[in-house]
What does this fold into?
Amino acid sequence: MSELADYWVKQAADKPLYPDMVWSRPENKLQAGKLLIIGGNSEGFAAPAEAYELVGKAGIGTTRVLLPDKLQKMIGSHFDAAEFTASTKSGSFGRAALADCLDLSLWSDGVLIAGDLARNSETAILLESYLDKYEGQVTLTRDAITYFHELPTAVLQRENTNLVLSMSQLQRLGISARFTMAFTLGMDLIKLIEHLHEFTKRYQVSIVTKHLDTLVVAVAGQVSTTKLVEDCRIWRLKVAAYASVWALQNPSKPFEALTTAVHEALC
It folds into this structure.
């Protein structure tokens, strides 16, 4: 591949590649969109709680957070945005939560499945059913991704789906999907860009991942890279929060939206 293929663009850390998107953002919260955050289990809800703060900084209009009802006594009325739904005996999301997930998703313009879901077979069934029935925009990150390691087509073939994931998670999805161009932890950036170009031409999903000091966005064969000024080990939740906001505010420009979200999250 040439140094800069026609499907690859570079974004500077100190300058957004698409400044018009930054300048044209909604100024009124009523026009800034509605986001549903799903996550948490009885052992913790740090991810959805942090995501709630982050999407506010990213410029969302209104946010609601759906948590398992095993957390209701712990949280009480201290978290105004929280709503509760059926959980398993162990405190994860139960299959009976599907109706609430779908109802709140219809209220929203986009959904962020933020993580802290724990491992549970009922939660796996719920997530699979939810993504099959809900057709709107969804962003997944952290341990929400691991639920689809064994059933990759549920996310890879779904429209309006953004995955913010580690290289190891991307490698696992590629193997499970039997994608012939392997993702490996030691691959160089150029090879990753080539593979993501082909991967997102084949599958409808949009990808955001991190290669050493570079964040990589891939949508429908287009790829952007943003080199980080400093190392950022804890990045997935913040980038996912910004990605979910920018994507729902710019549904007709997914590549530009995710590329700008990366810049705004880390600038």
Summary: The chain has one domain: 8-266. The mean pLDDT is 94. Residues 8-266 form a domain with the UDP-N-acetylmuramoyl-L-alanine:D-glutamate ligase fold (CATH 3.40.1190.20).
